[in-house]
Design goal:
Layout: E1 5-10, H1 14-27, H2 38-46, E2 50-55, E3 61-71, E4 84-93, H3 102-117, E5 121-126, H4 131-140, E6 144-149, E7 168-174, H5 178-186, H6 193-198, E8 202-203, E9 207-209, E10 215-217, E11 227-232, H7 236-242, H8 244-263, E12 266-273, E13 280-286, E14 312-315
Parallel strand pairs: 4-5, 8-11
Antiparallel strand pairs: 1-2, 1-14, 2-3, 3-4, 5-7, 6-7, 9-10, 11-13, 12-13
Helix pairs in contact: 1-2, 7-8
Length: about 325
């Protein structure tokens, strides 16, 4: 992975918020109607939200993140029992800076800020078919998911979302848990696909090649055992470019597999790539306290107070959700 020197700071000047507004159109190929306007970002940050910018050595904003205080959604099985959270609405990096850890570093800066404010939980949504985002969110960051939202946003005027129902994972990131703390301090230990298969994990929707060489999801299997795998495309955008019908088949397959597994008590906790990089799978396990999200001592919620956000220069992902 290439490293990049970036400075990550909360936005302050009106001009910076205006750049953030423009950047959203570039990152998500978005119609103006889908962009969060600068005036709302300014207001949100003044009243307890967070708007971060990642700046290169020339002072150009190359990534951004926005989140706000929120009540915990009542239907997310991994966040019950807590009233308040920090809801992370978007994080993105301009195309030429993707793959250089900027997205990862934006999330780590968000975690540092949220811990200083007294938060335990950060949540956000992302498209479960986006393998790079899955790798960042469940792998590198240590978030987990047991909440599948069908066509959550409806039709969106964004290039990367066009053509498919906007299904989403809503992940829970328990930012002070042992699981997350270990991922941040020690890095992500990539799981082995061979070891998972040898240990009895079965793929719920194993892909099979079509006559044109593209992979299509196979018949669904019922989840059983401690761990199961759900296959996703290595690049859903490439699949969409080749065949929207095939992309829709993947959407419906992953939807059915995950909804069934979540209902049966499994939690999506990691991502595993095949050795050749062409096959990608979610790793789901029967929920347990080892995830750092169950049987934990709950910290009492306290009023969010202003605290100084430490501006740091990070050396160093991913990059859009």
């Amino acid at each position: 992975m290439q490293e990049a020197g970036v400075t990550i700071v909360p936005l302050q000047e009106v001009a910076e918020y205006q750049v953030c507004e423009a950047l959203q159109g570039i990152i998500w190929q978005a119609d103006p109607v889908e962009v969060v306007p600068a005036h709302l970002l300014i207001t949100a940050q003044r009243h307890g939200g967070l708007v971060l910018g990642a700046f290169d050595s020339a002072g150009r904003m190359v990534g951004t993140l926005f989140g706000f205080p929120a009540r915990v959604a009542p239907d997310n099985r991994l966040t019950t029992g807590l009233e308040w959270e920090h809801c992370s609405h978007f994080m993105g990096v301009v195309p030429e800076w993707r793959g250089r850890s900027v997205g990862h570093l934006l999330k780590l800066a968000q975690r540092e800020w949220a811990l200083a404010q007294g938060y335990e939980l950060v949540t956000w949504t992302y498209d479960p078919l986006e393998a790079a985002n899955a790798t960042l969110n469940l792998g590198k960051l240590g978030a987990a998911c047991r909440c599948y939202l069908r066509d959550f946003y409806g039709e969106m005027a964004e290039g990367i979302n066009v053509g498919l129902p906007t299904d989403r994972f809503e992940v829970a990131w328990w930012i002070g848990s042992p699981r997350v703390t270990q991922r941040v301090a020690q890095g992500w230990a990539r799981p082995s696909l061979a070891a998972l298969l040898e240990g009895g994990a079965q793929v719920l929707n194993p892909a099979r090649p079509r006559p044109d060489g593209l992979l299509e999801p196979g018949p669904l299997r019922a989840p059983a055992g401690e761990r199961v795998l759900v296959e996703i495309p290595a690049s859903i955008q490439a699949v969409k470019a080749a065949s929207l019908d095939l992309a829709l088949a993947w959407r419906l397959s992953v939807r059915a597999a995950c909804e069934t597994a979540f209902e049966a008590g499994y939690v999506a906790e990691d991502v595993v790539w095949g050795e050749d990089g062409g096959r990608v799978y979610y790793v789901l396990r029967v929920a347990s306290c080892e995830l750092g999200i169950a049987n934990r001592e709950r910290l009492s919620w306290r009023v969010i107070r202003n605290s100084q956000f430490l501006i740091r220069t990070f050396q160093g992902g991913e990059d859009v959700y």
